[in-house]
Amino acid sequence: MKKAKVIIDKDFTIAEIDEKVFSSFVEPLGRCIYGGIYEPGHESADEDGFRQDVMEYIKPLNLTLNRFPGGNFTSTYRWEDGIGPKKERPRRVEVAWQCIETNEFGLDEFAKWSDKNGSDVMMTVNLATRGVLEAMDCVEYCNFEGGTYWSEMRKKNGFEKPLNYKYWCLSNEIDGIWQVGQKPGREYGLLAKEAAKGMKLIDSEIKTVLAGSSSPGQDTFPAFDVEALEESYDFIDYLSVHHYIGNMENDSANYLAKPMVTDRYLDNVAAAIEFVKAKKRSEHEVYISFDEFNTWHSIAREERFEKKWRVAPPLLEDTYTAEDALALGGMLLSVLRHADSVKIACVSELVNCISHIRTRNQGGCWVLPPYYAFLHYTQYGRGTALLTKVDSDVYDSKDYKDVPYLDAQAVVDAQDHITVFAINRSLEEQLEMSLELRGFEGYSVKKHIVLTADDPKATNTEDTPDAVKPAENGNARCENGCVKAVLDKMSWNVICLSK
Ligand code: AHR
User: What are 166-191's pLDDT values in tens digits?
Assistant: First the structure.
């Protein structure tokens, strides 16, 4: 059996966890929207065409923000196409995903859907192929009280009150060669600064998000981020970075180590921000918006080019399995561990496309195993992140050395309830965890939830939706100020403690 020791101490905290790290991302890509959150005529659709069977899985996540509309989609998007009467909206070529966009669902529909869902919207404007003025117009449409062209248009379209969107992404992955309108860091930084300036002159309450690196593997990381930040620092509030991990090599031990790359990446991004702040002698704080991350295996397969110009085809619908729950879980623990620097985090995406909520057009809705890791994170991850010291047995995988079998992160909430998230990465053996509670007295284990499967590739389908799901059957117990637990091989664990 593998072994690991953990220490948490009431006096050693990382930071309060921002509510905005419990967010997601919705893009008109594949069936994320069409056939996902929106399908008029579906038996569960409401009067606006919003699927309620899908909403039932989204609601418990209690999402703070949903980023919209992209994503790569944004780079050739005209936001005005998605407002007003649907029959007047243009059908367009959508080059990022090689599809036809009908624009039946746009800004107006997303505003309604978000309202029903109880979450806020983080808008992305197109600075790749459009300019400062179009971005400012969008702010005027969404947030200006009234009496102007765009604010009156909003009212005419059914939104009397301003939508008051606070968070605005200044384009998406503009460092990427795949992006129409790709720009070098300095050029983009100058443009983003002017856009942020103009947008903030319309609404001084908004916060702007600079598009940083799209992955730690980009040759231009972190120079792109530093250069863009240097040109725009005082006008922006967040730096967006993205990260996807996958098991393309079909080597589970190697795959489960990949959240360590996320940890290092977020450390480096935080350091890049600190570097620019110091160089500029600035008091202004810029935080990380980790507004796309997830597991993604088909990233290397260009399925969008196989059959072009379809309307909402199934794209990027990987079959996510039990091992993906642990991989995503590791990324989520990394977000909590970076609570001092990561203040926005969006799992990408919400439905069907790279997602764990899956639907069939005119059919059912079910969830894949990683959904539960995200659900637990949103349910038990709110509060303050505690410094969680782990001393674990380790292994070497194909690409990584000294990978701790145990990944763990603890959180304490406002009522002093403690949650310990723990992942046993071992594919073969149980792991004996002993966690010392320093400064926390009189606690006992209230719940120990376990998500595991005999087969790392086990998953759920429409016909077998409960094949992999969590159970409250863990064995954690408190003994003399220590939590002792034997964690199943390849398991995701949530241990809830209170007095
Ligand atoms: O989420 C899918 C795509 O991944 C997004 O459109 C893009 O930003 C990223 O490359």
Answer: 999 999 999 999 999 999 999 999 99
Residue 71: CB within 6 Å of ligand 1? yes
Give the Cα separation of 440 and 445 in Å (integer): 13
| Ligand 1 lined by 348 (C-beta under 6 Å) | yes
Atom 7, ligand 1: residue with shortest CA distance: 71
Spatial CA neighbour of 94 closest among 84, 83, 110, 105: 105
Report how far Cα 258 is from the mean position of its chain's Cα atoms. Answer: 17
Domains of the chain, CATH where assigned: 2-10+387-498 (2.60.40.1180), 18-380 (3.20.20.80)
With tokens 């006096």, the residue in question is 11
The conformational region for residue 118 under phi > 0 = left, psi -120 to 50 = alpha, else beta, is left
Buried b / exposed e along 143-172 (16+ C-beta atoms within 10 A): bbeeeeebbebbeeeebeebbebbbbbbbb
At residue 298, the pLDDT reads: 82
Active site residue 205: no
Give the atom of ligand 1 at the shortest distance from the alpha carbon of 97: 6
In which band, very low, low, confident or very high, does the pLDDT at 237 lie, cut at 50, 70 and 90?
A: very high
